[in-house]
Amino acid sequence: MDKIEADAVVVGAGIAGLVTALRLAEQGMKAVVLEQGSQDKYPCNTRIAGGAFHVAHQDVADDPKVIRDAITKRMGDAARDDVVNALSGDIGDAAQWLKKKGVRFIKVGHESYRKHTLAPPISTKGRNYWEGRGGDVMLRTLANELEKAGGKILRGTRAKHLVMRDGACVGLQAEQASSLVEFAARAVVICDGGFHSNLDFLREFISPAPEKLMQRNARTGNGDGLRMAREAGAQLTGLDRFYGHVLAKEAMTNDDLWPFPMMDLVCAAGVVVDATAQRFMDEGLGGVTMANAIARQVDPLGTTVIFDSAIWNGPGREYLISANPTLVTSGGTLHTAPDLRGLAAQVGLPAEALERTVSDYNTAVDAAATESLVPRRSAGGHRPWPIRQAPFHAVKLCAGITYTMGGIAVDAEGRVLNPSNEPMMGLYAAGCTAGGVEGGALEQVAYVGGLTRSAVFALRAADDILRNLVTG
């Protein structure tokens, strides 16, 4: 077996991996990045991301206390204080560091949290909406800077096993052109982006039928880092939640229906029912929570959103790439009928049960008492609309999974923790392969922001390596 020596080996060439390696290389360290993709524009979630840099929907330049409060509100006590403090305190500096490396940001839309969006912004049309934009440009910028600093990206190289000695990580084995190569290093940083495309892990942690989830991602999140860390005895955390959105069911077979349009705002205004025409979740908690609830169904493809013309022409037209008219123009099916009984026949739902569900919902909306519904329907985040204005509409749904929120447990320096909360020497994780800062344990799934936490903990992991392992 060939053996390659380096100061640090980084698994994955998304934002977390490239930021880690660049920081190290600029300080004279021999940093090698292993990327399983062999193409020049290897697929990964960073490359196709929307590009908004925010933390819990707060701009990265906001006061750290405001950012911290926003994270805590979403996560409750499910996140470590040191991790929350690190993210809220460092994100402003991390964004400035990226700017100094040539990464450009612009303001997109009217929301304040979009003041820092990767430039140029993604296109609103076409399958290659990302090419030459946003994350694609950022990755190429960081890769160029890494090369200038003496770092290397080894494409077509997939990490397989960590090499552990006396409880410390001293390298890893990887597959390269069907042969095993061993990398000896003082530090290994796992940045391969989560397990959202690994059906076995999804079945274990997320959904009883993962094959019925839409892979709203680059389809490269194989969970190699999670598996390797688990085999080495690392602590794992928060594995049961993911970031994603509600999509039309036809996105499973029609690539023009993902990643947009999202059905989130239509679902949050109307009602989402299962095959028995019963509501099964709180639609008012928003798209990420609804996607998770759909994924947990015995049949994740057996759900339908019911709404009327007022919703279709109201919330249906909101958002930059709105469901109305993008769903139809992209080949999706909008079921339409003059009454609920006719709509039920079209989508295969029991008519009397659907009429009763909508009637109970409308009565609660009229009385401003949707919290009393079972399951309850909160009204604080998204206004519940009555469903009365013909024609009535329905769209069959699926859950689109973008990335998994949980993963390897780390501290504020990105050091991987064992089950006793002690750092495992030489082993780090950053980006969406690390857990503990998103997902949470509250009813509403806590979305914090994948790009921002990736940048912050990549820099912190690199700095810890510089302080304690390589130069220490």
Question: Can you put this structure into words, describing what you see?
Answer:
A hairpin with a 2-residue loop joins strand 3 and strand 4. With 472 residues, this protein is an alpha/beta fold. The strands form five sheets. Strands 1, 2, 7, 8, 9, 10, 19 and 20 form an eight-stranded mixed β-sheet that branches. Strands 11, 13, 14, 15, 16 and 17 form a six-stranded mixed β-sheet that branches.
Range of helix content: 25-40%
How many DSSP H or I helices?
14
Radius of gyration using CA atoms only: 23 Å
Major sheet summary line = 8 strands, mixed
Mean pLDDT: 96
Helix/strand-derived class? alpha/beta
Principal-axis shape:
elongated
Low-confidence stretches: none
Roughly how many Å apart are the termini? 30 Å
Total DSSP E strands: 21
Q: What proportion strand?
A: 15-25%
Offer a quick outline of the entry.
Helix content is 32%, strand content 23%.
Secondary structure blueprint with pairings:
Elements: E1 2-11, H1 15-26, E2 31-35, H2 45-48, E3 54-55, E4 58-59, H3 64-75, H4 81-100, E5 105-106, E6 117-118, H5 134-148, E7 152-155, E8 157-165, E9 168-176, E10 179-190, H6 199-205, E11 214-215, H7 224-231, E12 236-237, E13 242-248, H8 264-269, E14 271-273, H9 287-295, E15 304-308, H10 309-312, H11 323-329, E16 335-337, H12 340-347, H13 351-366, E17 392-404, E18 407-409, E19 415-417, E20 423-429, E21 434-435, H14 450-470
Helix pairs in contact: 1-5, 1-14, 3-4, 4-14, 12-13
Features:
6-stranded mixed beta sheet; 14 helices; alpha/beta; 8-stranded mixed beta sheet
